Amino acid sequence: MNSPAPQSAGLTTRENQVLELIGRGLTNREIGDHLGIAEKTVKNTVTVVLSKLGLQRRSQAAIYVTVRTVTGGDVTWAAGSPGLIVG
């Protein structure tokens, strides 16, 4: 199993857990089952995570997790840009 990705600045432990599971491709229902929380709670948490990271779509969050895991560094979605800034 891979080592956990670094914590994202400004996210709670639960938000990081949800983000990591999004990166693994799990649905809200699967995330809820995995963490023992309601699907609605997952949906709300995903909304908060996307907002805190400045992302608009779940697919961006999955890419964010992948890049963060590979680089081991902080990742920023460049506003108005189709790309990520790794640093």
Oligomer: single chain
**Given the helix and strand composition, which structural class is it?**
mainly alpha
Average per-residue pLDDT, rounded, comes to 84
N-to-C CA distance: 25 Å
Unreliable sequence segments: none
Radius of gyration from CA coordinates: 12 Å
Beta-strand content bin: 5-15%
Strand arrangement in the largest pleated sheet: 1-2
Find the CATH topology: Arc Repressor Mutant, subunit A
Broad CATH class: Mainly Alpha
The helix content, as a percent range, equals: 55-70%
Shape: globular
Chart the SSEs and their pairings.
Layout: H1 13-23, H2 28-35, H3 39-53, H4 58-71, E1 75-77, E2 84-86
Antiparallel strand pairs: 1-2
Helix pairs in contact: 1-3, 1-4, 2-3
Report on the structure:
The protein has 4 helices and 2 strands. It has 87 residues and is mainly alpha-helical. The chain has a two-stranded antiparallel sheet with strand order 1-2. A hairpin with a 6-residue loop joins strand 1 and strand 2. The longest helix is centred in the middle third of the chain and has 15 residues, at 39-53. It is globular. The N and C termini lie far apart (25 Å).
